[in-house]
């Protein structure tokens, strides 16, 4: 189904339209993240790949919309929003919570439409079957803020602004609840290539937990380990973009 170049979907942000692109890379944000986090990726990807950035409800221009605090519910909505864009190959990049979401979206495309993703890029997240018991979403506001600051995932200046803080804390908590309560349901492995990306000092995922993504695809699997913590990609953006571009070529 062709997509109107002026598409104004609430879910999909197309910062740099590339009508002649041969593949679309869909970027799914981390907990508390927004579509604009991936603006630099959209700008820097080679011309053969058009970047689509997903905007979850409850943040920025969608801040008044009801939050979705579970991965299956989010995956259903993202899958539906991406269907009109599947007139050419799609690849998925997700960081942290976004990687779990990307996996479930890829599953839906395979199960519902028989469409295999061009690639799945799973960043900063353990494999779906590598479970951890986590309860950050149950902490009080101070505990939640301390967690986010420790990972350097949100500008600490924003966290110090009370007005902004009131706006973003509910979405951060809902995302943490979605990520931490996600329960993998065993099923057929994906058919697409999977590239795992992880920082060697990430407190949220070990290299072994990232390597376990190999269990979840019948396609080629590879793992890239970068120096850094949970947001290693802030320091290695160019290398991450190159790794994705090389895979998609």
User: Roughly how much helix do the residues carry, as a percent range?
Assistant: 25-40%
The tally of helices reads: 8
Gap between N and C termini, in Å? 23 Å
Give the rounded overall mean pLDDT: 91
Spans of at least 5 consecutive residues with low confidence: 1-8
Strand composition percent: 5-15%
Q: How is the biggest beta sheet arranged? A: 7 strands, mixed
Tell me, what's the shape? Answer: globular
Describe this structure in words.
By secondary structure, the protein is an alpha/beta fold. The radius of gyration is 17 Å and the shape is globular. It has a 7-stranded mixed sheet. The chain is built from 8 helices and 7 strands; from the N terminus they run E-E-H-E-H-E-H-E-H-H-H-E-H-E-H. Helix 2 packs across helix 3 (97-113). The longest helix is centred in the C-terminal third of the chain and has 20 residues, at 162-181.
Give a quick summary of the entry.
This protein has 249 residues and is α/β, with parallel strands linked by helices. Helices cover 35% and strands 15% of the residues. Strand 4, helix 3 and strand 5 (119-123) form a beta-alpha-beta unit.
Q: What's the helix and strand layout?
A:
Blueprint lengths: L11 E2 L9 E6 L10 H6 L4 E6 L16 H12 L7 E6 L1 H17 L5 E5 L17 H11 L4 H4 L2 H20 L12 E6 L7 H5 L9 E6 L10 H12 L1
Parallel strand pairs: 2-3, 2-4, 4-5, 5-6, 6-7
Antiparallel strand pairs: 1-3
Helix pairs in contact: 2-3
Characteristic terms for this protein:
seven-stranded mixed beta sheet, 249 residues, 15% strand
């Amino acid at each position: 189904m062709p997509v109107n170049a002026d598409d104004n979907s609430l879910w999909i942000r197309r910062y740099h339209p590339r009508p002649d692109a041969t593949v679309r890379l869909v970027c799914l944000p981390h907990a508390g993240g927004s579509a604009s986090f991936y603006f630099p990726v959209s700008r820097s990807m080679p011309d053969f790949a058009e970047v689509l950035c997903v905007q979850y409800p409850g943040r920025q221009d969608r801040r008044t919309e009801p939050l979705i605090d579970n991965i299956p519910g989010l995956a259903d909505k993202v899958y539906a929003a991406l269907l009109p864009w599947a007139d050419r190959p799609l690849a998925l990049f997700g960081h942290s919570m976004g990687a779990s979401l990307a996996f479930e979206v890829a599953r839906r495309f395979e199960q519902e439409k028989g469409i295999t993703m061009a690639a799945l890029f799973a960043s900063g997240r353990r494999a779906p079957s590598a479970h951890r018991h986590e309860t950050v979403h149950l902490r009080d506001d101070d505990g939640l803020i301390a967690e986010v600051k420790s990972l350097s995932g949100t500008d600490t200046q924003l966290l110090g602004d009370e007005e902004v803080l009131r706006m973003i804390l509910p979405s951060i908590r809902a995302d943490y609840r979605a990520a931490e309560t996600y329960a993998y349901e065993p099923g057929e492995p994906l058919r697409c290539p999977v590239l795992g990306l992880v920082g060697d000092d990430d407190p949220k995922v070990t290299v072994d937990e990232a390597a376990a993504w190999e269990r979840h695809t019948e396609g080629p699997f590879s793992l890239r380990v970068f120096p850094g913590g949970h947001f290693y990609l802030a320091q290695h953006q160019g290398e991450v973009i190159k790794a994705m571009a090389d895979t998609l070529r």
